[in-house]
Amino acid sequence: MKLQLSVLSLFFLLAFASCQQGGQQIAEEEKPKRPNIVFMMSDDHAYQAISAYSNKLIETPNIDRIAKEGMLFTNACVTNSICAPSRATILTGKHTHIHGKIDNRFPFDTTQVTFPQLLQQAGYQTAMFGKLHFGNNPKGIDEFKILPGQGQYYNPKFFTNTGDTTITGYVTDIITDLTIDWLDNRRDEEKPFTLFYLHKAPHREWLPAERHYKEYINKTFPEPPTLFDDYANRGSAAKEAEMNLLKHMNWAGDSKIEPEIMEELGIEEPSSWGINAHVGQMKRFTEEQRKAWYSVYGPMNEEFKKNYPNMTDEEKMKWRYQRYMQDYLACIEAVDENVGRLLDYLEANGLKENTLIVYTSDQGFYLGEHGWFDKRFIYDESFKTPLIVSWPGQVEAGSKSDIMVQNLDFAQTFLDVAGVEAPADMQGESLIPILKGETEKWNRDAVYYHYYEYPAIHMVKRHYGIVTKEYKLAHFYYDVDEWELYDRLKDPQELNNVYNDPAYADVVKDLKEKLADLRVKYKDSEELDQKYIDMYSESN
Ligand code: SGN
Ligand code: CA
């Protein structure tokens, strides 16, 4: 009898257990899987060079795929248009005066919380490949392979969790290989993931992949209407900035003119490192890579040598613009091809449905507008940044938003996607309401900007400002005290500073108040401006 009972109870026990298990299984299947996040960012990728924004310069069919499947932001911008500060803002969700990485040189206080740490703690698998340029290794990342500092285009070195490694080949292709290798071999299928796919290209000195040399060196691109800007009707900052294609771009380092030819022609490099950068680059090449380079860039040099003595300044400027665009856009071509490779991988492996994909840059860039290259200014081409986001089933395919969003908002957006509560001291807003078309939940209509790195390379003066869809008000300080106001709707090229125009007196008054409020809201102040000036002088 005893035995009979225990057999019976064992039977019930087993039946109960299996029933329980089945229930749990159903519950788990029903529980929606947390979305993956793929954050793609290129360095210095101007929105003018993405065909989803404008196809005047280049077709980028693969980056455009993200726009076709998701949302294109036409008014996305940064808080401080320079690399490392922007990256620190993205990771911390804070303005640069709060996280303290105000420029490329200041160190980042690594005790601060960055969003990957929070995602990792919440059970996300995290990985990062490419250019971080942050001064430190990332925290909260399970596996990383990042370029030291600015990184190299050819045969680059990488820092990894386990030591250094140098890989032969072209950086944009290698970063993609590393990314796909991780997805293929070390992704934990049990966990959602956050993947950082970070290109060095198209950062200066714009070295294309070998396969694009020939095609691009023969191309001619339309000139921007402000290529010969004389900076009239603006303040001293635009006039004094050292970003002019003719005057400040390096002939060897940037335009790829051989130092011997420069010497023969009596051309001097505007900055001392230009020649070294070029010579160093040529030395990095393998014998085969060097041959391929000279087979295309050699004849270009010969042609230049022949023509230069008879060129007017205007012709030189035009030539430099074309030379610049040929290399810059060839770099983008490789980025686009590789974005396509990664998207194909995600698609082929069923990883697109439940994944939020972002394509962005660490800031905008001048492609000859105002006669410039580089960034830094609050003016549109550097202030605005490309931002394209897809998330199947959540974001309407082919949608657009002109809401003023910032890189400040990324951290909270990703935490929101993952269902993780953002720390209260983050200063952005989750973009999820905008992405889901619930724009009535969004009420920010002005953004704050503050640039610091001065005096330094490119000599763009310190300034802060407020930007709305209609206006831009900026205060340049430190060695000047100048205000500029632009009417963004009437003067999209920002050629006329109307700060002193009586017709705009009310606008100025109103924006100055709003700017003061923003400085309070984001905890910026004259004391902080001064503190950063003092710290800067001490570090020099
Ligand atoms: C380098 C570049 C500059 C560029 C900064 C910052 N010169 O110094 O043109 O503005 O980086 O760029 S280079 O000749 O050394 O390339 S950032 O993207 O890292 O902020
Ligand atoms: Ca950059």
Low-confidence stretches: 1-26
How does the major sheet shape up? 10 strands, mixed
Give the total of beta strands.
14
- In total, the number of domains comes to 2
Residue share in β-strands: 5-15%
Annotated CATH architecture of the largest domain: 3-Layer(aba) Sandwich
Shape: globular
CATH top level class name of the largest domain = Alpha Beta
Describe this structure in words.
A hairpin with a 3-residue loop joins strand 12 (463-467) and strand 13. It is globular, with a radius of gyration of 26 Å. The model is unreliable at 1-26 (pLDDT under 50). The protein folds into 2 domains: 32-438, Alkaline Phosphatase, subunit A (3-Layer(aba) Sandwich), CATH 3.40.720.10; 463-539, 2-Layer Sandwich (Arylsulfatase, C-terminal domain), CATH 3.30.1120. The protein is 39% helix and 14% strand. Helix 2 (61-69) packs across helix 12 (313-348) and helix 6 packs parallel to helix 12. It has helices at 2-30, 61-69, 83-92, 96-99, 115-121, 171-185, 213-217, 236-240, 259-265, 273-284, 287-307, 313-348, 380-383, 410-418, 432-435, 505-521, 526-539, and strands at 36-42, 71-73, 125-131, 143-147, 157-160, 163-166, 193-199, 355-361, 387-390, 399-401, 447-451, 463-467, 471-476, 482-487. Calcium ion (CA) binds at residues 43-44, 83, 203, 362-363.
